[in-house]
Amino acid sequence: MKAALIHYHSPDADDLDSWEPEQSDCFGFLLEVKIGISFEKGADVFQFMVCTPRWLEENYKKEKVVSLRGYIIVFRYDLHEIISWIDNLIDKATGDDWESIAKWIGRYGLWEFEDFNKHSVLP
After folding, report:
1. Can you give the residue range of the structural domain that contains 9?
2. DSSP-based three-state secondary structure for 58
3. Would you say 72 and 31 are in contact if contact means Cβ atoms under 8 Å apart?
4. How many distinct structural domains can be found in the chain?
5. DSSP for 10-55?
6. pLDDT digits (tens, 9 = 90+) for 15-59
7. For residue 31, what are the β-bridge partners?
8. What is the pTM of this model?
9. What's the mean pLDDT when you consider all of the chain?
10. Contacts for 12 with CB less than 8 Å, ≥ 6 apart
């Protein structure tokens, strides 16, 4: 099985393809990426916080320790480079089933079904 990027968007920007941050060296936005299996219907959402080191410092300077799983750190805004990095990540994600692929991608981004337990769902 092979994963594929299906769609991406940000709830922080109306049109991410034309969006530009106000400050090129200090910004952060949530990027939601739909990833599925190549040539199959359906996809799951993975979230990444895309930000600069300066944004991190300004938003977390009172913290003594910060855990950064789910973050993509960039030094300047280039949507093409960000999506290319995610595409390369997805390209490395192969497995025998979707769950193993999604768990692997979930090491980098936050998977919407990460803690989902199908046995605890109400009928």
Report:
1. 3-120
2. helix
3. yes
4. 1
5. -TT-S-TTT---SSTTS-EEEEEEEEEETTSS--EEEEEEEE-HHH
6. 999 999 999 899 999 999 999 998 888 899 999 999 999 999 999
7. 48
8. 0.88
9. 91
10. 29, 30
